[in-house]
Design a protein that fits this description.
By secondary structure, this protein is an all-alpha fold. It contains six helices and no strands. Keywords: Membrane, Transmembrane, Transmembrane helix.
């Protein structure tokens, strides 16, 4: 019966780690908290099993608990150390106009209105990406610098 529980715990550990490696999006880091808590519970269970003389279960739970705790922390550190999105290359004036959708005679006000409209969709908080938002920003900057 103890081996069945050990196998179920191993499956749960594997599922949590697998789930965590697939969740790269912001706001989905709650798996790290769950993994750390489950790891602590496994370590506490290992102490209990060790006090009852179940050495195989103790070794399995210690290994699984430490693996969960360290893998969730390493993954968090890797994401924190990830480089920010690279600055987009310099745009030509024609590219900047096509991105913002303005003509060659566009005024400063029209450029800012087009930028505001596009940033409402391209901003990462609104479902866009950092790269797209940076491209829209650099297009506006290019046209306002002329």
């Amino acid at each position: 019966m103890g081996l069945i529980w050990l196998a179920l715990a191993a499956i749960a550990v594997w599922a949590l780690v697998r789930l965590g490696r697939q969740s790269e999006k912001p706001g989905r880091g709650q798996w790290r908290i769950a993994a750390t808590v489950l790891g602590a519970v496994l370590l506490a269970g290992a102490v209990l099993a060790g006090s009852h003389g179940a050495w195989l279960a103790t070794a399995g739970m210690v290994g699984a608990g430490l693996y969960l705790i360290f893998s969730s922390r390493i993954r968090a550190n890797l994401q924190r150390a990830a480089p920010k999105a690279a600055r987009p290359e310099a745009l030509s004036e024609a590219e900047a106009r096509s991105i913002l959708g303005v003509g060659p005679t566009a005024t400063k006000v029209e450029i800012n209105e087009a930028w505001r409209r596009l940033m409402g969709r391209a901003h990462p908080d609104q479902g866009g990406t950092e790269g797209l938002a940076a491209r829209v920003n650099s297009a506006r900057d290019r046209l306002l610098r002329r």
